[in-house]
Records
---
Amino acid sequence: MDLGIKGRRAIVCASSKGLGRGVAEKLAEAGVDLTLNARTESTLKATADAIAGKYGVKVQIVAEDVTTEAGRQALLQAEPQPDILINNAGGPPPGVWSDWGEEEWLKAINNNMLTPILLMKAILPGMIERKWGRVVNITSGSVKSPIAQLGLSNAARSGLTGFVAGTSRQVARHGVIINNLLPGSHDTDRTKGFIERSAKEKGISIEEARKEAYADNPAGRYGTAEEFGAAAAFLCSQYSGFIVGQNLLLDGGAFNSTLG
Ligand code: NAP
């Protein structure tokens, strides 16, 4: 299917690996020129070279921390007029409610709520003026179904979700479409770390821990970055203009409900 976005330009935050890279690959496959971002220049450059080589699109990199004002300014300077914005950053650490003080809360709120909001604030006026824009925020299934040990994520991302719910409905009439994608468990470096920790805690092998984790999911596995990227690319397509302010859960059916 031609997504109708060939020649469009996208900023993909936190995209040298994992879900962000999955989205970058699928946008590139649709012919979108990319500005990729991550903190580590070497992996970012390798990803950019691989994507440019495979899909023949223009790819530039901004090796900065997107959760800082300086990092965001560098991104906006490199690509001041993106048609597509993919908001993403690393997730907060696990813990227990009693672990987190003001410093930890401010960091989580900055990284997973304010950073995407500030990027949208900077980019939406240009999209509105040009009467076309797509924003996809990578949040988490934890917004819908809390993961107790990820309380920082549950809360900060819920704040972002509330902002998107109202704002997406204010900008849709200008051809600017904002939605959230909620990953359940996907095979990336982040979940590899969780599985390794679980193996250590239970005194079992990593393979056994992985089998257990997969068995808990109705699909019998974790999602792939490719599947995630394809869903995001559709939400950035010419055909997503009537999908407004939605929260699409990609979790293999792990969230058990009949509706919603
Ligand atoms: P990942 O495989 O660890 O990849 C993270 C990517 O983000 C890397 O490219 C990393 O590169 C970059 N990054 C991290 N912090 C950054 C920052 N401050 N500024 C710029 N780039 C940054 O993680 P993932 O699994 O794809 O997860 C992506 C997001 O989805 C996270 O917020 C995670 O909590 C959320 N999520 C993931 C899952 C899952 O199952 N994978 C489920 C629910 C939610 P550098 O380290 O070089 O910066």
Note: DSSP finds eight helices and seven strands in the chain.
---
Amino acid sequence: MFQQMLINGKLVGKRSPKKTINVVNPSTQKAFAQVPKGKIKHINKAVKAANKAFPAWAATPLEKRQAIVEKMADVISDNADKLARLLTSEQGKPMPEAMGEMAWTEGYLRHYATLEARGRTIQDDDDFKIEVRRVPLGVVAGICPWNFPVLVPFWKIGPALVAGNTIVIKPAPTTPLTILKIFELFNNFVPAGVINVVTDENDLGPALTNHPDVAKVSFTGSCETGKKIMASSASTLKRVTLELGGNDPAIVLPDVDVAATAAQIYGGAFLNAGQVCLAVKRVYAHKDIYDEMCGELATLANEAIVGDGLQQGTTIGPVQNKAQFKKVKAFVKSARKDGKILCGGIVKNKAGYFVNPVIVRDVKDGDDIVDKEQFGPILPVIKYSNIEKIGKQANDTDFGLGASVWSSDTAKATKIASQIEAGSVWVNQHINIGPHIPMAGFKSSGIGVEQSEEGLEEYTQIQVMNIAK
Ligand code: NAD
């Protein structure tokens, strides 16, 4: 299979060995498709096309822009099965999760299609009419990671387009296929240049973030890359939204139903093989329930069916790529040194990047597996005894994306939750997100906000129209 890029309404890229990138199935380590190896000239063409398309798109009535975003949702829904198979083949996640990503994407788009970047009138009297308008920025660059290769681009495309901007998407190098296919499906109803996509070998991001005609960069990915993007956007004073890494704590009080809480925490930790920015990445379990919580989590992990996401019954797919697999291996090694592994580990003698879910106990703050974002199927459980101090302890990190507090006493849990320095804090649940709920990070987890009306505003700038009468 060979899938081209979409630039200025044309499918671009030649199928020749020197000009293509292999798309590897992480369950087999075999290349099963090719995409073009984009060059700087493709970035320049895509930005030029987006810039050219911008005035007409910005002038298109809001209802028409919303209708096009709604049509995107229809097309994704109509092709969900086929697209989900492609997604599983390149990303690894089990088919039900891939279908879930399609349904999520559809739902987000349908919500964005109802939004409007609203201005307001400050004064309208005999002397002046003063209006605050929300006008589009121009060309947006959307730089995306490999964990949700379809959902994350549409977190950018939907609001950018509704607000009147045009966009250039750069997928992650290991997961370009499904989004390219979707752009091809959109090409007969989205005006040329409004959406463009360029694939790369992890080398073209700077060409977008430096580009003088890109007005805004919306980035989702690691903290390290986020810092580079902010630095390189500075010379042209681009607007940036950075949705970065997380190391979400789940704080469990001693009064919980341990089995029920463990099941929910397990779900929040091992979705997409743990490769979720908002996954539970550290469990703080009170000493009175510590052994029971570790045991319940290990029981659930032992029941996991790890394998090819295309096979029916698989509950955890492979780690997405070789580099991440190497990182997860190092975490398993350090966890073995610092604590006690209750179950799971690297699957040997199998071609894919498979890891049986790991539960590690007797680890503490300061250990790599607790302090760093593991981004894989491995979960540390830390014992604590002082409920008064646990919020402060969990805050002792540069991350601040999400967190959860679990207790049968909601008021008590909410009091601790209020002390947590994170953009999304949940009580008795983890990862409840949606297009109507703002999503942001504290500290190194990000700058700006995505989703909801607040997220939409980030794709606009304020213009004051001040008319003397
Ligand atoms: P990454 O930072 O390695 O790569 C993300 C994207 O940035 C890729 O498209 C990559 O090619 C591009 N890139 C790399 N160097 C660049 C540069 N110098 N300039 C511009 N672009 C560059 O991240 P990843 O490994 O693909 O994704 C995993 C990370 O993403 C995790 O830390 C995870 O927590 C985070 N993430 C965050 C959210 C969120 O909403 N906060 C959502 C999903 C993933």
Note: The chain is about 35% helix and 25% strand.
